[in-house]
Amino acid sequence: GMATYINSATSLNVNGIYGAAALAVDSSGDLYVANDHGNSVSVFAAGSTLPNATLTTGVNDPVALVIDSNGTLYVADSNGGTVTEFVPGSFTPTTTLSGLLFPDALALDSNGNLYVAEAGAAAILEFAPAATTASATWAADADSIVVDSSGNLWAASRFTNTVSMFSPGST
Prior knowledge:
Blueprint: E1 20-25, E2 31-35, E3 40-44, E4 53-55, E5 62-67, E6 73-77, E7 82-86, E8 95-97, E9 103-108, E10 114-118, E11 123-127, E12 136-139, E13 144-147, E14 153-157, E15 162-166
Antiparallel strand pairs: 1-2, 2-3, 3-4, 5-6, 6-7, 7-8, 9-10, 10-11, 11-12, 13-14, 14-15
């Protein structure tokens, strides 16, 4: 059966959820909820049903989240055209990738490279760790992306009804 962890079905902003668009879980079991209607990311300690923190600085229409092996949170802000990076324990972004065209999906590979799917450009961009300029680009309309253990980049599109795979080194 289905267990309801946090429920805001009766109100628009209950328990720190306002338009939940994406989820991520860190190595401590803390849950991160991207609230695209609330322009925030709510952080729930493992096992809690109330947020213990809310990230708002540098967050505008968050639609995708990913957390790297160091606990750094990346937030794709679709309408803001940015991806913001928050190091563990910080409420202020440390890096912001800007000038993106509606970023709507994020993924990380085992080397720490960040992949950003841009809905407005029908492209996927790769950023090396700490880079602010893309090191590779793939032409792909993607709503969801993931990198497997072999380094293959997978992209799914609900609009083109496709799933594409890009092998390492291809563009």
